[in-house]
Amino acid sequence: MLMGLFVALSGGAQVFTDYFADKTLRVDYLFTGDARKQSICLNECSELPSWAGRKHHLAELPLEGNGQIVMRDKASGDVIYRTSFSSLFQEWLETDEATHVEKGFENTFLLPFPLKPTEVEITLLSPRRKVRATLRHTVDPDDVLIRQKGLTHVLPHKYLLKSGSLERCIDVAILAEGYTPEEMDVFYADAEAACESLFSHEPFKSMKKCFNVVAVASPSEDSGVSVPRLEDWKQTAFGSHFSTFYSDRYLTTSQVSDIHDALAGIPYEHIIILANTEEYGGGGIYNAYTLTAAHHPQFAPVVVHEFGHSFAGLADEYFYDDDVMTDTYPLDIEPWEQNITTRINFASKWEDMLKSRTPVPTPTSGRMDHAVGVYEGGGYSAKGIYRPAYDCRMRTNNYPAFCPVCQRAIKRIIEFYVND
Q1: Rg (CA), the chain
Q2: What distance in Å separates the CA atoms of residue 103 and residue 233, rounded to the nearest whole number?
Q3: Whole-model pTM over 0.90
Q4: How many Cα atoms occupy the beta-carbon half-sphere of 89 within 13 Å?
Q5: Domain range holding 32?
Q6: At what angle do helices 299-312 and 184-198 cross, to 10 degrees?
């Protein structure tokens, strides 16, 4: 039994072909509002020519996430698919700016294409796990306004790793950001380097056969990406920039629909975007994307760290010594991320991995004796939040591996996607 990971519904397993065609329903939303009030707007539905996602565990969540999507058969009300996510909008809601400005953020999700009218419900959750906003809408597969994409004008691409079929493998797409058409050979080399770094880490290394990786040559007008603090703005494929939320090294993009347009016609589930820059930075958002600076000396560990966020929903394990706590994780709520805990429900995390007589909390002076412990400091807070190892790829760039708890969490996610 995988404790604390999969959230399942009662009842029998759903049979994919009973409810879905072998196509993708792409749904574009706008998340809007401020710290006081949020809402979700449906922007557009599209049809993509194949489905690269899971065809089993359909009514289960891989992780709780900061948001969830539920698909129900319209006639019976049965849940036929669930997934989870996080969003840049929800991060922004915790900033000072959100207390006095309203904004809107693009969000795009891939769902299996229904055979019959289906109700889609999308929900945003607060750090306290309360519903912030929800939207229900019906998708009729015969709706003439569902736009078809990916049938023509597919971008040039090549597979860096082809391990098997869409059904049996996890499909990762690597996109170019800030590479001109003349720089695509550089991009392909950078994509190869990202692959090499990712699959040098366990458990990706031993489970490499579970992945397909495709590099997609998405061209930009300008070379490089935007660095606002230097007043340097570029015209790039996805409009990415540093200084997200005024944090110099936080590299993100809000042009999410452009990302998915670039991938139309290419099977994909998870996204890595490589930015053609020597600046240091990156970002990773669970079930959204990883975006990483490709030409900084720390590129290799950073792309793996950020993919730990976007693929496996791992939390940052670093913290700031002068911070007693932040508002990111309420200390009386157990975080959904598998590699941090407030000890409110530690049994759902890595308590089973502790060796006997491991002190809890675990003093850093004993880190050589306790590869897995309960070390205070994590999730940006020095107090009240605990991490499983003294060091880990999710804490520093210098440490060469994911800790045992992160490795187990990643392995469980991989198995969830590929095993019946």
Answers
A1: 21
A2: 21
A3: yes
A4: 29
A5: 16-148
A6: 70
